[in-house]
Amino acid sequence: VAPESGGQDMTILLELFVSFFLVAFVSFGGASAVIPELYRIAVTEHSWMDARTFTELFAIAQAAPGPNVLIVTLIGQHVEGWQGALLATLGMCLPMSLLVGLLFKHWDKLQHWRGRAAIQLGVAPLAVGLVLASGTLIARSAAPGVNGIGLLVLTVVLNLRTKLHPLWLILLGGVLGLSGLV
After folding, report:
1. CB atoms within 10 A of CB 14
2. N or C: which terminal CB in the chain sees fewer CB atoms within 10 Å?
3. Which long-range contacts (CB under 8 A, 24 or more apart) does 127-132 make?
């Protein structure tokens, strides 16, 4: 999607910032946990890109060193260049940075509040569920086929039953992808 001219740019930049600002409030587990919502915003709601482009940007964000929030930066860059990258990233990072900073400042004072234990117990399963939903969405978008599903099952089994370092599994996936088997 090429940037529009004139006032349209500001509208799209504002949409980028606000969209990711709102998503940030449910991003327990990081940006990977809200991939379905990012997909809904970028592909379904605003049509900033197609499903394949989204999946490719996700793959780049996962392959690159650094935090998972890179997907947001790449979406913003795809939509509106460096300004989009900056505003999308700021929108995603700013709310939780402020909230967590304020919360940690007062967290010890809340040690006897019953809600504290509920928050601590509830956030972990919420994050796991969001990450699982993200993985499902990306798998559907990538259309892995029988070989891809086989690789997924093999990876899960090896990860659960051996102490094999995950980098070897990533290398295996890369080799199979380069060879055209997946």
Report:
1. 12
2. N
3. 127/28, 127/29, 127/33, 128/29, 130/26, 130/28, 130/29, 130/33, 130/34, 131/29, 131/32, 131/33
Residues 158 and 105: their CA atoms lie apart, in Å, by 41
Residue 14: predicted pLDDT: 94
Predicted confidence (pLDDT) per residue in 81-101, tens digit:
999 999 999 999 998 888 878
Lowest-confidence segment of 19-23, 40-44, 142-146 by average pLDDT: 142-146
Question: DSSP class of residue 25?
Answer: G
- Torsion angle, CA of 38/42/46/51, rounded to 10 degrees? -120
Q: Tokens 């947001």 map to which residue? A: 72
Tokens 């509830």 appear where? 122
pTM here is 0.65
Length of the chain: 182
CB 97 within 8 A of CB 60: no
Q: Which of 161, 155, 156 is nearest to 177 (CA)?
A: 155
Closest by alpha carbon to 151, among 118, 174, 122? 174
Give the H/E segment covering residue 110.
none
CA–CA gap between residue 117 and residue 123 (Å, rounded): 10
| Residue 21: φ, ψ to 5° | -60, -45
